[in-house]
Specification:
heterodimer; A: 6-stranded mixed sheet; B: 7-stranded mixed sheet; 3-stranded antiparallel sheet; globular
Chain lengths: 114, 112
């Protein structure tokens, strides 16, 4: 069975500071991993995905994430936060060769202060 | 540009009404999903479909049913709406297992 844990329901940073959103997964087989962003009153859109190629994945809007098998983690980072990054972020996992249904974490709300 | 369209952004319905939420995708995707989103609970899967006329229950199917008569359309039905079904409903589709899901804009349903 697969599961996702996002540490911290809210993360607050100052504009220009490093953004770090944490995601740990549980999967019995090699996973596919995704980060999505949701702006207020909108659906989710893909930021980036890991599908067993390079362990460091670059996404849109300057975000990137690193797959660490030994730590079962897929943390999302951005070197310098912008006000426009304020949104809800979701980590998701699906299993290779298993169910094709993505399982989502509970989400982390990113707050960016001027 | 890929697109998943949900028929309504906002709905207000009365307790006991039968409610239909419609979702259409234009990407020829096999898989379609219905999630509900509540604060602090993330996205919870209600139903999914991997082919026309095929459906499977997700984590919270009670009080809901679905219909997929055509590949591009996946409907969520609340047989008798209740106030605890007030929520944001998100439809999504995907092509294959290892590809991302594409989401609609969501329908915010209020049951009074």
């Amino acid at each position: 069975a697969q599961s996702v844990t996002q540490l911290g329901s809210h993360v607050s940073v100052s504009e220009g500071a490093l953004v770090l959103l944490r995601c740990n997964y549980s999967s019995s087989v090699p996973p596919y991993l995704f980060w999505y962003v949701q702006y207020p009153n909108q659906g989710l859109q893909l930021l980036l995905k890991y599908t067993s190629a390079a362990t460091l994945v670059k996404g849109i809007n300057g975000f990137e994430a690193e797959f660490k098998k030994s730590e079962t983690s897929f943390h999302l980072t951005k070197p310098s936060a912008h006000m426009s990054d304020a949104a809800e972020y979701f980590c998701a996992v699906s299993e290779q060769g298993g169910s094709y249904i993505p399982t989502f974490g509970r989400g982390t709300s990113l707050i960016v202060h001027p | 540009d890929v697109k998943v369209t949900q028929s309504s952004r906002y709905l207000v319905k009365r307790t006991g009404e039968k409610v239909f939420l419609e979702c259409v995708q234009d990407m020829d995707h096999e898989n379609m999903f219905w999630y509900r989103q509540d604060p602090g609970l993330g996205l919870r899967l209600i139903y999914f479909s991997y082919d026309v006329k095929m459906k499977e229950k997700g984590d919270i199917p009670e009080g809901y049913s679905v219909s997929r008569e055509k590949k591009e359309r996946f409907s969520l039905i609340l047989e008798s709406a209740s106030t605890n079904q007030t929520s944001m409903y998100l439809c999504a589709s995907s092509l294959r297992q290892n590809t991302e899901a594409f989401f609609g804009q969501g329908t915010r349903l209020t049951v009074v």
